[in-house]
């Protein structure tokens, strides 16, 4: 039944969506803020040093 | 003056000079004070050894004018040393001593407190890790305002530190 072919991709689509959401969450919550934190700390201790 | 006698016995001047780390002026004035005290003691000893009696019979046999010898004897007999009331001075000295001791104790207590804080600082310095071993987490723990700043920056969508590139350069190829 060829009309059911699109439904074969539901599995892939849902997983892609899940992975994307997870990645966005992890990056925005933990990984990218850590870089800001690292830069700010570096800037801060260098200011202290000078 | 039992307390004063006890103090006198307890004072060890060589120890005071060498161990207390006093200033030059303080040591000099202390030495001057000691010298004054020693001089006074020496003079007192000399004077107390001198005879206090007058041999009038000798003068009577030597001098022709007996009346003047009688006069002198009478004057000597009538002489009474003036007594001074030193209790006020002693009281003032005692008050001064009490005040000085109180002050010294307060200073000692204050110094103890300062010493403790200094030792705490010293221990802190000794226990501290070298700068190379410092992590960003340590800095964040020591200064929580950095974490707060990061939070607000991320909330506002700011992902770069103003002035960071100018200071440390940029590794971006593009």
TrEMBL record, chain A:
GO terms for molecular function: proton-transporting ATP synthase activity, rotational mechanism. It comes from Serendipita vermifera MAFF 305830. InterPro entries: ATP_synth_su8_fun (IPR009230). The chain crosses the membrane at residues 12-32. It is found in: Mitochondrion inner membrane; Mitochondrion membrane. It holds the Pfam family Fun_ATP-synt_8. It is a single-pass membrane protein. This is ATP synthase protein 8. The lineage of its organism: Eukaryota, Fungi, Dikarya, Basidiomycota, Agaricomycotina. Keywords: ATP synthesis, CF(0), Hydrogen ion transport, Ion transport, Membrane, Mitochondrion, Transmembrane, Transmembrane helix, Transport. Its main location: mitochondrion.
Automatic annotation (TrEMBL), chain B:
GO terms for molecular function: proton transmembrane transporter activity. InterPro entries: ATP_synth_F0_dsu_mt, ATP_synth_F0_dsu_sf_mt. One of its GO terms (cellular component) is proton-transporting ATP synthase complex. Pfam families: Mt_ATP-synt_D (PF05873). The keyword Transport applies. GO terms for biological process: proton motive force-driven ATP synthesis. Its main location: mitochondrion. Keywords: CF(0), Coiled coil, Hydrogen ion transport, Ion transport, Membrane, Mitochondrion, Mitochondrion inner membrane, Transport. Gene3D superfamilies: 6.10.280.70. Residues 101-128 form a coiled coil. It comes from the Eukaryota. The keyword ATP-binding does not apply. It is found in: Mitochondrion inner membrane. Mitochondrial membrane ATP synthase (F(1)F(0) ATP synthase or Complex V) produces ATP from ADP in the presence of a proton gradient across the membrane which is generated by electron transport complexes of the respiratory chain. F-type ATPases consist of two structural domains, F(1) - containing the extramembraneous catalytic core, and F(0) - containing the membrane proton channel, linked together by a central stalk and a peripheral stalk. During catalysis, ATP synthesis in the catalytic domain of F(1) is coupled via a rotary mechanism of the central stalk subunits to proton translocation. This is ATP synthase subunit d, mitochondrial. It comes from Serendipita vermifera MAFF 305830.
């Amino acid at each position: 039944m060829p009309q059911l072919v699109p439904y074969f991709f539901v599995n892939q689509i849902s997983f892609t969506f899940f992975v994307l959401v997870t990645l966005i969450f992890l990056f925005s919550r933990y990984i990218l803020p850590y870089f800001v934190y690292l830069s700010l700390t570096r800037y801060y201790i260098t200011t202290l040093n000078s | 003056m039992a307390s004063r006698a006890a103090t006198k016995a307890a004072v060890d001047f060589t120890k005071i000079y060498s161990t207390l780390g006093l200033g030059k002026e303080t040591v000099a004035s202390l030495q001057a004070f000691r010298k004054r005290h020693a001089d006074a003691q020496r003079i007192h000893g000399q004077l107390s050894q001198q005879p206090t009696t007058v041999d009038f019979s000798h003068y009577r046999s030597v001098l022709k004018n007996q009346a003047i010898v009688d006069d002198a004897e009478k004057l000597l007999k009538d002489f009474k040393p003036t007594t001074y009331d030193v209790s006020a001075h002693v009281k003032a000295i005692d008050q001064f001593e009490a005040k000085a001791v109180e002050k010294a104790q307060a200073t000692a207590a204050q110094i103890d407190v300062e010493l403790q804080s200094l030792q705490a600082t010293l221990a802190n310095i000794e226990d501290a890790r070298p700068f190379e071993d410092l992590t960003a987490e340590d800095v964040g723990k020591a200064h929580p305002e950095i974490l707060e700043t990061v939070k607000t920056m991320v909330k506002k969508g700011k992902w770069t530190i103003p002035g960071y590139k100018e200071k440390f350069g940029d590794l971006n190829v593009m």
